[in-house]
Amino acid sequence: MLIVQKYGGTSVADLEKIRKVAQRVARYKDQGHDLVVVVSAMAGETDRLLSLAYEITPEPAPRELDMLVATGEQVTSALLSITLQAQGYPAEALLGYQIPIYTDELFTRARIQEIPTERLRKGLSQGKIIVVAGFQGITPEGDITTLGRGGSDTTAVALAAALRADLCEIFTDVEGVYTADPRIVSQACKIPRLSYEEMLELASAGAKVLDIRAVELAMVYKVPVHVRSTFSEAPGTIITEEDEEMEKVLVSGVTYNRNEARISLYGVPDQPGVAAKIFGPIAERGILVDMIIQTGRPDGKADLTFTVPRTTLREALKLVEEVAQKIGAERVESSEAISKVSIVGAGMRTHAGVASKMFETLARHGVNIMMISTSEIKVSCVIDEKYTELAVRALHEAFGLDQPPQEEK
Amino acid sequence: MLIVQKYGGTSVADLEKIRKVAQRVARYKDQGHDLVVVVSAMAGETDRLLSLAYEITPEPAPRELDMLVATGEQVTSALLSITLQAQGYPAEALLGYQIPIYTDELFTRARIQEIPTERLRKGLSQGKIIVVAGFQGITPEGDITTLGRGGSDTTAVALAAALRADLCEIFTDVEGVYTADPRIVSQACKIPRLSYEEMLELASAGAKVLDIRAVELAMVYKVPVHVRSTFSEAPGTIITEEDEEMEKVLVSGVTYNRNEARISLYGVPDQPGVAAKIFGPIAERGILVDMIIQTGRPDGKADLTFTVPRTTLREALKLVEEVAQKIGAERVESSEAISKVSIVGAGMRTHAGVASKMFETLARHGVNIMMISTSEIKVSCVIDEKYTELAVRALHEAFGLDQPPQEEK
Questions:
Q1: Yes or no, beta carbons of A74 and B56 under 8 Å apart
Q2: CB-CB under 8 Å, A93 with B64
Q3: Could you report the per-residue pLDDT of B259-294, keeping only the tens digit for each?
Q4: Structural domains in chain B, sorted by start
Q5: Closest B-chain CA to A138
């Protein structure tokens, strides 16, 4: 089999952990598999590098910021390759520019555009274990880009897709995807299988175990993904296409996201194209708008509220304030004290009443709902941040997740 | 003027020092100069990275070792560029592969082959300060190489040569080139001007202030080099072509090199091509042989003694022992407890008796001479390591260097 593996920062946090990763990789190689291994920066290194840059200035040049933080993965890939070779396994470390992993020019949150596979295939055909520095790519002009937080997951799935690998294994510091965050819900259970759609909704709703762009790529290219622990041999969560055998649970998991912020524009004049004027500049900067609510007013104007990732609030707010002045909106407000709780499950497609049960549960616990959004297999509610844990625990219990799910045969 | 500047590791040791470097660079820019700034890794970083690799294995894979240590300069170049941009100066950090600085494939001690200047000139024509990660290059196949210790000096002079820069300034933690190591000879004085030839001999004889390959490049391409301190405004040592006005001092400086080791082959059969058999494999590995002495013996065999850098003794010895067995030499011996003291001066060309005065001075102080080598403007003696300081001080005094040289007008 051709397997792409990804090891996160805590899995390669020091030389001893890197040695253990090398041993695991070697075991796969001994079993006859072809291997591409994607590594993150050693735990803490990316933050250390970022803090150097932000100590210089609150707004470091994005091109140079990417050049700076990309060194983290470069170091790990070199160290893992040196370790494998010292153990007698032919290995070759490759950086984003060497493969090359082409991206667009959105520094600090670039998107992968194309991955030629000649260099990778050449190394594999020579029997080498290819060790890839995750999180990084290169623009057509040759500048280093990074893919944003969680970017190494995306690197791994994108490589698996480009190489048509048989499996993509994401090794991390948890044993898989859980019905809820075990730090909040002690009865949370590992979910043995999930469909891409469910994982996508869980990831977009705040489950941090797997980056959302990685899930999207896996879904589009039908890459089977196995999320599992570096520190144990236990099977984790397998993410594949939905099939007949997959148990259609009503709700697979409850998740939450604190990286939310709200921006409200009051008194927006009712003109054609006003929404494009507001959301155009935000989209151009690559900022993701999640929920949008527009409310008509008796005076013909409208109030508009939407959410963005909290980390981008400052940037988004600046853009919105400029637009508000141009279009003559009355005022702009924002809040960071919100969070989003969500329930996700493929079974929702065929069962009515899931959303109303969620609203009823939250109401019973005194949690006010500010915004709602739904998809075929997800319901999300924006609530006051202080109720986050309460809401997650209440929903986990209300949907019967406090029992361990049945393992499939 | 187009000026290439190089700042060493102690000059960029922390963010505060990098800020000061940025201020100095900005001052040059304000004066209307075009600037290419080459930086080393922050002091201690290269050693930290190397020790990680050597903690894994005593013989890390050279390709990955270069990929690892090249991150040091990548970090500094990004941080300096961020600092300059934060101060309002357009800047662009460029890595070895981006320029590109093409080298051969001798990992860990690669030699620069070619530097296309299009990318550099493009940035300069846009008014940007170009910040270059020193010490690193790229093979035609796209692998990262490093140029060995002192490689950032070579990067700076090679860039100055490729760009036909007006001046190459080497900023370091000393004020210039001295008549002797001030840590050993307290009366040592800064030398205001030196010819390339003198600097070359000083560097090859152990003066560490400027890398020898950098001096060679400067001489070939006639790049004026100014070695000076990052931490003061005082003029340093200017290295240029020898001219009429340059004072022809008999001896410009006394220097020493402890990075020496001796290998002796006894009973080498007198066959055609035996020297090639011994020195061929050593040269192929890029190990520099300094002095060679061959002594005939009554039995028709020969004894051969030569010196190599102490850091390469282990590797050289392995190669020599293999050859010794093949050609049937009697035995191989080696010693690390030697050092080389040298006197250098352009005035030697026209003055006889300098060498004999050196031998006489050493003899008077009881220092036994093991090997001698001379050039037009240098005399070197290999001696027992323990006499190093004594020999340097004695020679410094004997050749009248204890007086400060006259500054030129």
A1: no
A2: yes
A3: 899 999 999 998 888 888 999 999 888 888 988 888
A4: 2-173 (3.40.1160.10), 243-409 (3.30.2130.10)
A5: B98
